[in-house]
Amino acid sequence: MRYFCLPILLLTLGLTACQYDNFEPPKSTFEGRVVYKGEPILMQSANVAAGNNSDFPVFLELWQKAYNNRSSIRVPIKQDGSFSSLLFDGDYKLIVPNGQGPFLWKRTAANTPDSLDLTIRGSQKLDIEVTPYYMLRNSQLTVNGRKIAGSVQLEKVITDAINGKTVERVSLYVNKTQFVDAGNSINKADLAGSAITDLTKVNLTTADIPALVPLQDYVYARIGLKITGVEDMIYTPVQKINLK
Amino acid sequence: MKKYSFLFMTALVLVSGCKSDVDFLDVKSTNILLVDEVFNDPRLVLSAVTDLYNRIPDLVKPSNMALYAAFDEAFASGDYGRHQNREYSYDDWNYWDYGYIREINLFIQRVDGSTKLSAAEKARFTAEGRYLRANAYFELVKRMGGVPLITEPLLYDYSGDVTNLRKPRAKESEVYDFVIAEMEAIKSVLPKTPGEKSRATYGLAVATKARAALYAGSIAKYGVNTPTVSLPGGEVGIPASKATAYFQTALASAQELINSGQYALYQKSPDLSTNFANIFLDKSGNPEVIFVEDFKLQSGKIHGFALDNQPRAITEEGERGGRLNPSLNLVQSFEKLDNTFAPLAINTGSATNYIYYDNPEDLFAGRDARLRGTVLVPGATFKDKSIDIFAGLLLGNGTFLSGDQLGQLKNVNGASVQVVGKSGPIEGYDGSAQGGFYMRKYNDPVPGSGQIGTQSEVWQVRYRYAEVLLNAAEAGFELGQNALAATYMNQVRSRAGLTTPLTTADITFDRIVHERKVELAFENHELWDMKRWRIAHIIFDGSNSDLTTKPGSATEPSTRVYSLWPYKVYNPGGANDGKWAFRKILSGRVTQSHVFRLGNYYSRIGDVIINNNPLIVRNPNQ
Q: CA torsion, points B271, B275, B278, B279, in degrees to nearest 10?
């Protein structure tokens, strides 16, 4: 009799004991876009390497208020300007860390990034309004033989003397996949900022696109703007181009 | 009866057992030495300081070789992760070991309080403790910028309040000033024994002072190129106005060491490449080496650099070897004997117009002897055996024939021919010479060094005289004394076989950068140099640019490592049969271009550290 008890006891223990150990997984989705007057800011795609938290080109930081030992949650921004993160319900602060993004984020009197209070109770959508240094307007990409030509208008949004920045260069990037940016391209054309006389008429043309292996008769392209002193570039929408 | 004796014994225990608690518990331990026992015996103090020496932080070293492939000096044949990551993490290269600093502070305090050590012993041990502490701060400031300067062991009073233990970050310049002042204070206390390579000496203190002042000077001078890499409190960034004073200190210290005559360039072997390789191998009467981390076979302190880097063709341990392949980026940087730069002559114009060579090593003839002292090129021998690097056969019709196993034989027109070298390269084959080259610097040629049970005792050189000369040259150049800079640089260059001296007009920033790149490759300098010159974000700019055709230029992007693959021409009866042709290859494993962000100039201070001490300000651009 005694020996029968033991397995039953162990079984009961096994079935009941872990009930209190487990947390519910985070279920609330926090998503949105980084926008300027409702228009998303397009940036470099996230090259997400497993186990490397800061390996995002552009990211936001969330700080949960509930704990004394605080550590940030990094939310990468995708190339279409959107982001999404699975969170526990709770009170958070959102900041854009120093040096992130081709845009200006409000700063406190102590010159640290200003924070945005965020209450997560269930899923939530929030567009984050920022002020970009420049916006890219009316981009057009055309194909001529195996050359790709692009034109774009640059709208200088921040014009004051303190925060305004000049154009370092404008680049047209071409890639085989829809991830196209400074780090992912098979061909590009650069135009230095000093060579731009009229911000509303910026034209670039790439060299011939080399033969693609395996054979592929289309490419993706977009134009990016590098702002002097700002690391992250701002881009136009990705466009698929048929090389016929 | 039993009961009575039990009672009796209990009584006895009660009466006698509790008589003297204090004596009963106060038993001298047989396996722990107490503080005052250690610090009253010079031999035990030596053990204590040895432990502190053993924990000197070095980022890149032969016993931790993964980082060699993190930039553009080498391709990692077997661990391709770095070549497939774009960004460097802000956390990379961080360091915050105040436990080590506390132990050094305690060490200094305890040596000072010792009653049995002689005055001379006390002075030397204290100076060594101060060297190690300043060296740790030097490492901290290189990686993190200004850090809290703690020079006393802090004591917690168990009050529950730790605010008095929280110290803010010092300015970056203050940490450099601390290092410089400490070196100045201890240099005359430390022994003038150039033969002593593992402990702090006069020469080491002066060399460290020169290096620290040079770093501070270049951060002050070139920091203006990256204005956002600074903090308003000066924790990161040094005012440009301080540059000249730092360069003067650097030049004066380097000259002090040079003029002391204690060290000299290593010139023992008539073969200049072997001579260069031997700087790192020769432990008997080496006049050049100033400070090392030493290793010894059968002592437990050994490393596996030779085990992991022996050429695969002659491996002593099964599947081991060949992990680190110097890159074509580095190899083509070694200049020609007439002091000019040129990419390797592998073709005329288009990639298939090969230039044919009788022997594979002929491609590298007429270049800086340091090339073949640093790198094992195709056609070279190691441990007196052929290392057999070739990627395949170039057939008469212009096609390639290769294999997927090392040293594979294939049937070509009825004859059995070896189609790939015993060291490869084979794309994706771990340990094969995928970069086209193997390591010679630090690679131990002693038989048995490639065996797991033996391994290597080659020492890790931290300071050597050639670097002091280059530091003097750089400081001279920054102060406008180009003739002096040329004198010092020419000493290093003539030892390497570049006998045409550089003239005053030849000394440029590009020359300074280039000389350090080739002389000090794989010696834990590249990252720090790129950072202090503020050119890391220009060289690793994230563009997928091609291999530069201007290897002498300091600011050419070098974001991906290129390989050079040799092919043996197989065309019996044809014109070039048996000759060698070369192709520049970008390995399929290299999928991303490195981008060094402005936030990488100073590593991230972790959230845990800032939670514990809210006075710590974050580094810029993170």
A: 180
Phi then psi for residue B213, to 5 deg, are: -65, -35
pLDDT of residue A54: 45
ipTM of model: 0.82
Q: Are B424 and B250 in contact (CB under 8 A)?
A: no
The residue-averaged pLDDT of A63-81 equals 86
Closest to B609 measured CA to CA, from B170, B150, B172, B94: B94
Domain residue ranges of chain A, discontinuous segments joined by +: 28-130, 133-242
Do A71 and B599 count as a contact with CB atoms less than 8 A apart? no
* pLDDT at A52 > cutoff 60: no
On chain B, the residues whose CB falls within 8 A of the CB of A229 are 227-228
Q: How far apart, in Å, do the first and last CA atoms of chain B sit? A: 82
The pLDDT assigned to A50 comes to 46
Supply the DSSP string of B508-555, one letter for each residue.
-HHHHHHHHHHHSTTSS-HHHHHHHTT-HHHHTBS--PPPPS-TT-TT
Peptide bond into A57 cis (omega under 30): no
- Does any CB of chain A come closer than 8 Å to the CB of residue B594? no
Burial A194-229 (b: 16+ CB within 10 A, else e): eebeebeebebebeebeeeeeeeeebbbbbbbbbee
For residue B599, list chain A residues with Cβ-Cβ distance below 8 A: 98-99
Residues A40 and A19: their CA atoms lie apart, in Å, by: 44
pTM assigned to the model: 0.91
**Rounded CA gap, B2 and B48, in Å?**
56
Looking at residue B257, its pLDDT comes to 97
Class for the domain spanning A28-130:
mainly beta
Class of domain A133-242: mainly beta
CB B257 within 8 Å of CB B187: no
Q: Does B199 touch chain A (CB under 8 A)?
A: no
B233: buried, middle or exposed (CB in 10 Å: 19+, 13-18, 0-12)? Answer: middle
CA distance B616 to B367: 50
Is the Cβ–Cβ distance between B258 and B287 less than 8 Å? no
Q: Which residues contact B615 (CB under 8 A, 6 or more apart)?
A: B166, B167, B168, B169
Cβ distance of B86 and A97 shorter than 8 Å: no
Residues A174 and A131: their CA atoms lie apart, in Å, by 27
CA dist B421 and B393 (Å) reads: 10
Could you tell me the CA-to-CA distances from B149 to B165, B179, B182, B210 in Å, in that order? 12, 11, 13, 21
Q: Do B608 and A52 lie within an 8 Å CB cutoff?
A: no
Q: Do domains A28-130 and A133-242 have the same CATH topology?
A: yes
Cross-strand bridge partners of residue A183: none
Average pLDDT, chain B: 93
B425: preceding bond cis by omega (within 30 degrees): yes
pLDDT value, residue A65 = 86
Alpha-carbon gap, residue A120 to A28, rounded angstroms: 7
Q: Which chain A residue shows the shortest CA-CA distance from B229?
A: A99
Q: Which of A22-31, B136-145, B232-241, B425-434 has the lowest mean pLDDT?
A: A22-31
Check whether B104 has a pLDDT greater than 60.
yes
Domain ranges of chain B: 305-458+535-597
